[in-house]
Amino acid sequence: MSLTENLGRTALLKVARTSEFGFFLTDGEEDVLLHKNEAKQSYEEGDELEVFLYTDSQGRIAAADKIPAIQVERYEWVPVTDVNPGLGVFLDIGIQKELLLGEEDLPAHKGVWPKQGDLVYATIRVNRNNRLYARLATDKVFEEIAVKAGNEDFNKNIQGHIYRTAKVGSWIYTADGFKGFIHESQRGREPRLGERVEGRIIDVKADGTVNVSLLKRKHDVMDQDAETVLAYLVSRNGAMPYWDKSLPDEITERFQMSKAAFKRALGKLIKEDMIYQEEGWTYLKKDEDRQSK
């Protein structure tokens, strides 16, 4: 196999000669430069080493003795280093040259493009001009590497990265190796491609894939709503003209929550002996009133 055919892969080459800016390697027919910036150590003429082959900014075949985990037909999670709205996103594959994941392979909606630090699961593709680009893993690829979830995983907290996103929902690969789907109703916002998210499993399907929710559990939401009501009470010196019989529109306008959520928050605060209600008003109990009980 020629050096060109090995682009995006590794090759075992021999040092033909050295120079002040690197090492010229050969397969016996073609030579390629291992620049000193891409070399982990120094080599001598006759040394044999495994290198990764890529094309430099001028389209020439070059070598690196740092072997990326991502190669042609080999997938790995790689971090995003930069975003160029006119080109795509750049990935760090472990060598000096970053790999471009082109705009045509990214979501049409730029608002869910990966940001710096996000991780995408990708491989390397070589185009007709022998340039190297990234290619995202498809659903089929994730099906091949995923493990099946069991009934014991229902309601389990998970974390993972988004590998596909759309208006109807997002697809996630979890740290446990589960392949999952997040319906649009189960996310507060549409997460980015490559974003790390946390959620819980709300359904384990017959094929071992899972449905995931990124929404907070009910008790967590209630805690947050109760804190919102409590903060408002404190800001009004412990009294507010709202109670559990206030109109829904008034509650939504003031607290940005439904009347049902508002009543649950009040109920929690009453149960914790933090507030009381009288004639359309809610009051914050003083410390001495609470301690006297």
TrEMBL record:
It holds the Pfam family S1_2. Residues 155-217 form the S1 motif domain. Belongs to the CvfB family. GO terms for molecular function: nucleic acid binding. This is S1 motif domain-containing protein. PROSITE patterns: S1.
